[in-house]
Known about the structure:
It is a single chain. The protein is α/β, with parallel strands linked by helices. Helix content is 37%, strand content 14%. The chain has 13 helices and 15 strands. The strands form three sheets. It has an eight-stranded mixed β-sheet with strand order 3-2-1-4-5-6-7-8, sandwiched between helices. Strands 10-9-13-14-15 form a five-stranded parallel β-sheet, covered by helices on one side. Helix 4 runs parallel beside helix 5, helix 7 (202-233) packs across helix 9 (268-277) and helix 10 crosses helix 11. Residues 13-19, 36-39, 42, 86-89, 101, 104-105, 123-124, 156, 158, 160, 263-264 line the site of nicotinamide-adenine-dinucleotide. Nicotinamide-adenine-dinucleotide is lined by residues 13-19, 36-39, 42, 86-89, 101, 104-105, 123-124, 156, 158, 160, 263-264.
Amino acid sequence: xxQTATGVSVGIIGxxxxxxxxxxxxxxxxxQVVALDADASKVTAIEAGRSYIEDIPSERLAAVxxxxxxxTRYAALAQVDxxxxxxxxxxxxxxxxxxxxLVSAGAALAGVLxxxxxxxxxxxxxxxxxxxxxxxxxxxxxLVAGRTFNLAFSPERIDPGRTDFxxxxxxxxxxxxxxECLERASALYRTVCDTVVPVTTLEVAELxxxxxxxxxxxxxxxxxxxxxxxxxxxxxxxxxxxxxxxxPYGFMSFKPGPGMGGHCLPVDPFYLxxxxxxxxxxTAFIELAGEVNAEMPYYCAEKIAGALxxxxxxxxxxxxxxxxxxxxxxxxxVRESPAIKIxxxxxxxxxxxxxxxxxxPELAGFGLRSQPLxxxxxxxxxxxxxxxxxxxxDRVMGESKLLVDFRGVTxxxxxxxxxxx
Length: 421
Ligand SMILES: NC(=O)c1ccc[n+]([C@@H]2O[C@H](COP(=O)([O-])OP(=O)(O)OC[C@H]3O[C@@H](n4cnc5c(N)ncnc54)[C@H](O)[C@@H]3O)[C@@H](O)[C@H]2O)c1
């Protein structure tokens, strides 16, 4: 690999929501970057300078195209100084950690690992994964972790769709197998992050990420529970949350909603509860939060049915329009999206569904395509599930016959025929 502006070349394994932004950021910092994915279509897209991740405009990708070397071949990683692994860490059908993508990436990397390379795992996982699972895999190469190659864990904190904090301005936690591993990984991240937070062990770094996500999951569950109670008590939960948020200390505002989606919050906490069993330890908060949040789509489907009932209409045969089907605003990711679950529940009851989502052109599972806003607003009921920045809420409120708002965007506005969570 040719000499780089930074003197360090980097390989990224897994070019998804985490890996592609990272590859671009490293390239922008002057590194030569070998960008590897098992999915050839992603490699082809990068070769063409075409981004498939909303946070990375194609122009930004194209601008560093010369320093990006997309490939599906692990052999290309033999030439780089440092390799970052950002493959998925999902749950299997028994809701247990599925490390298969990591195991297969680790095994393939072992085949080309070179003395003196640094390997950093960024995938979210339970404490012990890097030391107990990844290190032995990589040592199949004949090299020794912490002695003839360096090994570190650094959790990814990217929040797709967020613009106020970026990879560069979000502090980066790093843990190393040895002090030298830590120093090398920290030096690498200092080239793309303003603040690096070194911690003493790999396990501290691994658990830090899980604590962050569990904190969110538990707080979202809490406010969802309060929302369901408020509904019965006829109190506006949105006003309550906003009022509580005026306290300048000791309170952090979390909003209720139709449930948790994406690759992180519905998945990551269960990595820890699984590991906790090995220590005869219970993780009651994780389980309870999971239960409350998983219940929300059912609750929301019922709320839509109840709104129709007030109009003397059954779910069966009613035209129900969903606004926003991705799991969060500004992105097209529908993984674990509560909107999909709600649509499935309504479809099972015979609803005539349509949706509008500028980020999700098609929902093949439902045989549906996103319709223009004006074409869905005359449905029997319109349900707001995810509020993309492009949505004209005044228009939605003005033109919907009956509106169900699960995101509180109509809160505080005088509106007839609006039902809120
Ligand atoms: N998406 C987020 O917001 C986010 C935030 C923080 C952390 N994370 C964590 O980062 C990790 C990656 O998440 P993501 O959202 O980027 O996933 P993703 O599914 O968007 O991307 C993962 C990529 O890895 C590729 N891949 C899978 N197995 C591979 C292999 N063996 N070799 C090469 N490539 C392989 C896939 O083809 C895919 O392109 C996960 O552990 C996740 O929990 C995600």
